[in-house]
Every structure is written in C-alpha cells, then in structure tokens.
C-alpha cells in the first residue's frame, strides 16, 4: 500500500526467481516478498516507482533555466547571452527553503516538459497525479536531506579551517554519529557543542518536516462547465472568482483508540475517508469486545477548508448562469485566498459517492465532484498575475522581513515604468490611454484615472480617531448614448478587483451580504455581496438612478465608513468594503433638464450625492464642429496610447510601491484653495451666504492630490498635485453644483437638494402671501383661495407658478400661520394670528 491507500503492484522481471504475491505463503513477510529482482510499479500501470523518483531527483538537481528558454523558442546564441541560463533554479530554491524552514516547493509544470529526461514524467503526472505527486514529495525530501548533509559538511569544513591546525578543539574525523553521548570517552564528547547541535539540526529538521510539491502552470486551463467524467482523477487547472470560504475544519488523518478494560492503545489510519474502528481489543490477553474508545486529543488532524469557486462574469456564455465548483484546501493552502479573489487553481478532479441514507452504506449512482487543490495562484490585476507563493504565506511574522515582499516585477518592466513616469506628458498620456475609443471627456477620464490610482489610507489609532478612506467615488450622470456604460465596462476590465452590476438587477442584500445555509455543515453563513467582493478594488454600478430606495440606503455606510454592518439571523458582524464606487445614472425624463439641479434630474437623495468626490455631467450637445471631430476620431484613432497590459502594470506598480505624504507647501496650498472656495459663497447683496465648499470637498482634494502624486510615482504631494486636484473639483462642481437661476456654484444643491437662492425665493413668497392676506382680510376672516392666487399674480413682478403657490401655502399651514378650509373651488384661506 502507498500513502494514499493505493496498492503498488510488484512486477517480476523475466528470468527472475523472486516470489510473487500469488505464490507466497500467507506467513511470508513483506520484506521477503519484496526481495529479488522485482520492480515496484504504480497499481494498474507499468510506471516504475524507482525510475519516477530518480528522474525527478535528477530534474531537481540538474534543471537550469536554459532548458525553459529553449522550450520558449530562444536560440542557442540568445541563451548563451543570458547570464542566468546555467543557474540551477530548483537547487537555489531548495537551499532557501532549507534555510527558512519552508516546506512547499512551487514547481512550474512546463519545466518538466522542457527538461528532456522528464518529458515522460510530465505526461504521467497529468494522467496519474495522485500517485506521481506522492512520489515527488518523497523525492524532494531525499534531495533536501542530501542538501542538508552537504550544508553540514561545508559548515564542518569552514569551522575546521577557522579553528586552524594548532587549535585544541579541532574536530577529529570519526565514524561515530554526531550525537553527543555519555558512553563516549572524555568530557568533550559528552558535552554537546553549539556547532554540533547546529549540524544535527539540519538533518533532524528535514526528517521532521513533510515536504510538498505544488504543481502549477498547465498548458491550458479548463472551463468549469467543460469538466466531465473523463477528467476524474486527472490534474486540471481552472480559473474563477472565489465567492465563499468556510472556516478551518479539522480533518482526521489517524484515529487513536484506547481499550477501556486494559488501557491498550492502537492507532488506525483513515482509509478513503472511513475509520475502521476495532471491534475488539487487539491485545491477546484481553480480547474484550466493543471496548475500544476513540481519544480525540491524541488523534492526528489536518487543517481543511472548503472553497466555492464561480465562473468569472466575462467567461459565462450569453444567456446562462455562472457555474460553480467546490474545492478542498489542506494544510498550508488554507486561507490562501478570500472571497472576491480571482484565482487559477491547479488540482485533482475527484468524484465521491453520495449515500442514500447517512446511516447506511448504500450509495447513489450519481457522484458528487470536487477538486483537491494542489496549488493556488492569484491572478488579480492588482497582483499583476504573479504567483503569491506558499513560501511567503508560510513565513512567520519574524521571518517576513527577510524575504522580498514587493510584487515581482521584472527589471526591464520596472525600468520601462520609471522611464514612462519621467515623461513630462505622463498625465495626458495615461488619460488618453484610458478608454481610447471614447472621444474627448478629458476631465472625466482624468478623474477616473486618479480613482484607479487611489489616495492613501490613513489611520489615527493613537488618537482614537477612525481611519480616513483613500478610495475615490465618482458619479457620471447625463444624457443617454454618451458612453457612460462603456467607461464603466472598460474600468471594470482593468480594475484590480471589482464587480460590475446594474441598479435594477441589484438588491440590498445582493450588494452587501445575505444569509444562506451551508450545504456541507447545514449552518447559517454569510454570502458576500458585490461591495464586499470588491474590497480593495472598484465596484461599477450602472443605472444607478433605477435602484430602489432600500438598495441605495446601504451605500451610505459603504461610501464613507467603507464597512457593511450585518445583524440578521443571529449573525452580528461588520464586513470590510474598502472599495471605490464608479456609478452612472440617467436623468428622469431621459434628457437632462439644465433648468433643474442634479438631485431633481436623477432622483438621488442629497445625502448620497454628497458622498461622491466627483460628480460629472455628460451632456449630448449638438455642435457640428464637435460632431465632425468625433467622426474623424472614430475613423482614425492615431494618437499615441499605452497598451492595456502596460497600463494595468503601471497602475499596479504605483498602488503597491507609492504611498505619498503631503509636503508643507502642498498643505498650505490645500488650506488656501479651500478657503478660496469657501469665499465664493460670500454675497453682499444676500443676507444668507451660499455654501460653495464643505469639509468633504477638502478631503476629496487631499485624495485626488495623493492619487496624482502616486500617478507620478512620487513619494511626496507637491503644489502642482494640489492645483490639479483643485481644478478637477472646480470643474466637476461647475457642472453639477451650479444654480440654474443665478449661474453660481452652490453646494446646497448637492447636500440639501435646493439652492440658497431657491430657499430665499420660497421665503420671500411666504412673506408676500402673509402680507397679502393681512391686507385682504381682518382677523378671523377668510379669503377665497382663487382670489388670493389672482391678487398674488397681479402684484408680483415675477410670475408665480400654481405649484409654487400651493407649496408656499402648505408650508405656512405647517407653520401654523394660515388655515385652509373647504374643498375644491370653495376653498378659502384664513390668517391665523397669535393670541
């Protein structure tokens, strides 16, 4: 039997007198049975166990990068020009593993194919992964042990050379084991030395550890809906979106039983998920029936986690719902990914029987499938598709600083990024490269570009203050067919993490989290919604105006505190939703009315509208010159732009490596710009001041300035960054917060829904109605409603609409100044005076 419970058959070579299992006496031992010139093979195949192990050992020791270069199409001359072509890649990795105490080796599957002696092993590993991977684990442990011995030998030689020939403590070569023993003569031999113990530790540590080979990099990935019975027990690679991960579950590996009569103990291995509980005590003098009881704290357990993987939205065929697959992660692969991660998983596709009744062993004819994970590779744009290796995950907090934590960017790519950042027109170049098929809208593109870079998240935990968000929220509203949805889809493609959703097709629980019953444990669990899955990325919401009020209400907390608070079905928790929101909305009447403010045009509550850092109006204006330029742009598109892959890498590099701080000059510029914007509300002709900027605009300026500095790969926010942030804020406010009556900026339009001039006009109308009623009636008497309307229209220099007059009367009635009696044409208004 091998470690997985599969039989390893014994193939007798020709002309060999070695006994076989078929003709041996039942009392023959395993050692006798394995004697002779026989070859161990994997059950049901002619694959030699010894050949597989020796080939893989040779691969680990001899593989160099030149083989992969040749497989990738490089010529002999190009390979020789590379400095690291002869580097023994896996020897260096295993030496690092030995030094750091890491137990997993990430092995690129294509390297096995590129190395000629293991090309056959590459095919065998795809067909019989359960057995081949087990043999690889055994082989890597042997190689690690030999490396440990070599390291001990080198250390012993270096210590000998350091001590010198005249030293009294020079070690004498001996055939005795390196373990100090009291039986050896002399106190020096009986006392353990520091260097001896260090030498012993290398081999002992290798013996104690369980080494694993993590295969990844298959030639192609399989779509989830294409998995079929022919893939069972084969190695597959699939890509998808993690939608749920369970807590860590204990998975029993071996059970420990104890006899309640004689206290005899026995260990039982798990065979295919079943514990063969002893029915009687195996001790010959006891033989008690049904006396064995399991002892849980002495049984062996491993960490297990069930992960639900779903097809990504871009890979789902039209008109179909996304498929999902369950996966099992063990040991160090637990918690390698979380909900919302886009991952590529390499594993073994398995099928397990389902019992008709849990109390009976009868199984159904339809099996349940899942994937046993071998390797998880995150393919988030934020991580630029780089494998977040198990080496980094296994390190303790003390060792984290010894390994390079920055994402692996090639030197050529890093030099290209820095050279591009040094260009004086980098801002214009990046904004042109963002959605290049969309004409003009320069300020909109620049705002969205800074949203992708994001500001710096700041936390003031010492002072007890909450953290300040660095994510930027943007709203696009305007006429139909103005490329709003195209911009959202483009941003969704290049955003690090994110979900694209539509307003009408989203519910409150679909955006935040909903309670469902786990099919495995039958317990109530939380399923993450779109905003939680977008944690750390951008959530694109189309048709924002068509959301229900209940759905929009959950966004208030997300957009400012960046959390989602849940209290339902006995689950009380707070989930992170650190996401930037990019939303688009259409006007109520399908055409934007410039005479109405933004809240009345798009039917959004002012409290939600004020949480957007930038609100852009995208209007479809008829202009022949502009239309000709647009048509010419669609036909030519000849401007210099950056490829989408490089743009994504540039944004990822900036987000990872740049956390700019505000300089003194930038701070003073921010203060002066904020005060200047506040001064715009001063009007000597009006008793009430207009609000032209709030503290939210100041915070927005800080975030945009930090994003602009991050775009330049700068660690410091300068005056120019602040000036560009102020320009973007003013440009957006000029469109979205301009009072249609006065033509002046008024933040009350966004924060309250009405402008200060509108409030003044309503107050003046109320006062005029009261004075008119005082003239028309005496105390206690009433005036006809229609007569008051007529007289009001005659004496007012500005026409008063019927609905405005009715609203003024309702307001006065609520204040208790007037009373409306009667109905229809008989209505009359009575002035109420205080007693």
TrEMBL record:
Residues 17-30, 159-171 have a biased composition (Polar residues). Residues 426-634 form the MCM C-terminal AAA(+) ATPase domain. Gene3D superfamilies: 2.20.28.10, mini-chromosome maintenance (MCM) complex, chain A, domain 1 (3.30.1640.10), Nucleic acid-binding proteins (2.40.50.140), P-loop containing nucleotide triphosphate hydrolases (3.40.50.300), Winged helix-like DNA-binding domain superfamily/Winged helix DNA-binding domain (1.10.10.10). One of its GO terms (cellular component) is nuclear pre-replicative complex. Residues 1-12 have a biased composition (Basic and acidic residues). One of its GO terms (molecular function) is single-stranded DNA helicase activity. Residues 1-30, 152-199 are annotated as: Disordered. This is DNA replication licensing factor MCM4.
């Amino acid at each position: 039997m091998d470690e997985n419970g599969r039989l390893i058959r014994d193939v007798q070579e020709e002309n060999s007198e070695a006994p076989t299992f078929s003709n041996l006496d039942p009392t023959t031992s395993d050692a006798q049975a394995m004697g002779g010139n026989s070859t161990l093979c994997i059950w049901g195949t002619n694959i030699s166990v010894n050949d597989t192990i020796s080939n893989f050992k040779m691969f680990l020791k001899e593989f160099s990068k030149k083989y992969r270069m040749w497989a990738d199409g490089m010529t002999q001359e190009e390979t020789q020009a590379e400095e690291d072509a002869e580097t023994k890649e896996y020897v260096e990795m295993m030496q690092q593993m030995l030094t750091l105490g890491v137990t997993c080796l990430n092995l690129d599957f294509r390297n096995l194919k590129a190395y000629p002696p293991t090309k056959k092993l590459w095919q065998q590993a795809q067909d019989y992964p359960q057995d081949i991977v087990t043999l690889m684990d055994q082989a890597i442990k042997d190689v690690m042990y030999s490396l440990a011995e070599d390291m001990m030998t080198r250390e012993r030689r270096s210590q000998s050379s350091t001590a010198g020939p005249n030293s009294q403590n020079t070690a004498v070569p001996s055939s005795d084991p390196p373990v100090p023993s009291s039986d050896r003569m002399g106190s020096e031999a009986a006392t353990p030395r520091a260097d001896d113990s260090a030498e012993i530790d290398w081999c002992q540590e290798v013996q104690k550890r369980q080494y694993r080979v993590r295969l990844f990099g298959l030639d192609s990935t399989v779509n989830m809906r294409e998995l079929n019975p022919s893939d069972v027990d084969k190695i597959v690679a699939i890509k998808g979106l993690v939608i749920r991960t369970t807590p860590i579950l204990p998975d029993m590996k071996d059970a420990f039983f104890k006899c309640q009569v004689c206290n005899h103990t026995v260990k039982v291995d798990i065979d295919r998920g079943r514990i063969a509980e002893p029915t009687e005590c195996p001790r010959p003098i006891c033989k008690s029936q049904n006396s064995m009881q399991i002892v849980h704290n002495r049984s062996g357990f491993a960490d297990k986690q069930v992960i639900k993987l779903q097809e990504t939205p871009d890979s789902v065929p039209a008109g179909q719902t996304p498929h999902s697959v369950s996966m099992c992660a063990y040991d160090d692969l637990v918690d390698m990914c979380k909900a919302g991660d886009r991952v590529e998983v390499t594993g073994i596709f398995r099928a397990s029987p389902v019992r008709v009744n849990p109390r009976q062993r009868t199984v159904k004819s339809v099996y349940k499938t899942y994937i046993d994970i071998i390797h998880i590779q995150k393919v988030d744009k934020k991580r630029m598709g780089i494998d977040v290796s198990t080496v980094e995950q296994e390190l303790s907090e003390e060792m984290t600083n010894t390994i390079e934590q920055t994402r692996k960017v090639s030197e050529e790519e890093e030099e290209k990024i820095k050279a591009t950042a040094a260009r004086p027109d980098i801002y214009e170049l990046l904004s042109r490269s963002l959605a290049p098929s969309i004409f003009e809208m320069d300020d909109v593109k620049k705002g969205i570009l800074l949203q992708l870079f994001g500001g710096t998240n700041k936390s003031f935990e010492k002072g007890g203050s909450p953290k300040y968000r660095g994510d930027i929220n943007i709203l696009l509203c305007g006429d139909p067919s103005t490329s709003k949805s195209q911009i959202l889809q483009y941003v969704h493609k290049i955003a690090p993490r994110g979900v694209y959703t539509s307003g009408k097709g989203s519910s409150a629980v679909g955006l935040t989290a909903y309670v469902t019953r786990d099919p495995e444990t039958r317990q109530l669990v939380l399923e993450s919604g779109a905003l939680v899955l977008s944690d750390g990325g951008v959530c694109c919401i189309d048709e924002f105006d068509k959301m229900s009020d209940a759905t929009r209400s959950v966004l208030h907390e997300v957009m400012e505190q960046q959390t989602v608070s849940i209290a339902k079905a006995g689950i009380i928790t707070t989930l992170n939703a650190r996401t930037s929101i990019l939303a688009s909305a259409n006007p109520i009447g399908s055409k934007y009315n410039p005479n109405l403010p933004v809240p009345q045009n798009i039917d959004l509550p002012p409290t939600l509208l004020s949480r957007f850092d930038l609100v852009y109006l995208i209007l479809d204006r008829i202009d022949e010159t502009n239309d000709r330029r647009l048509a010419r742009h669609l036909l030519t598109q000849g401007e210099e732009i950056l490829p989408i892959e490089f743009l994504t890498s540039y944004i990822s590099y900036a987000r990872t490596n740049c956390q700019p701080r505000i300089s003194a000059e930038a701070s003073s510029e921010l203060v002066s710009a904020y005060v200047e914007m506040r001064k715009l509300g001063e009007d000597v002709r009006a008793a009430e001041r207009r609000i032209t900027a709030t503290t939210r605009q100041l915070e927005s300026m800080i975030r945009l300035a930090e994003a602009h500095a991050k775009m330049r790969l700068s660690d410091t926010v300068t005056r120019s960054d602040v000036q560009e942030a102020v320009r973007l804020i003013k440009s957006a406010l000029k469109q979205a917060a301009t009072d249609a009556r006065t033509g002046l900026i008024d933040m009350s339009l966004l924060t309250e829904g009405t402008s200060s001039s509108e409030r003044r006009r309503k107050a003046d109308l109320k006062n005029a109605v009261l004075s008119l009623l005082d003239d028309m009636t005496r105390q206690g008497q009433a005036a006809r409603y229609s007569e008051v309307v007529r007289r009001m229209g005659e004496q007012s220099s500005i026409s008063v609409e019927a609905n405005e007059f009715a609203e003024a009367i309702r307001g006065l009635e609520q204040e208790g100044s007037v009373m409306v009696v009667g109905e229809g044409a008989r209505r009359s208004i009575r002035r109420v005076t205080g007693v």
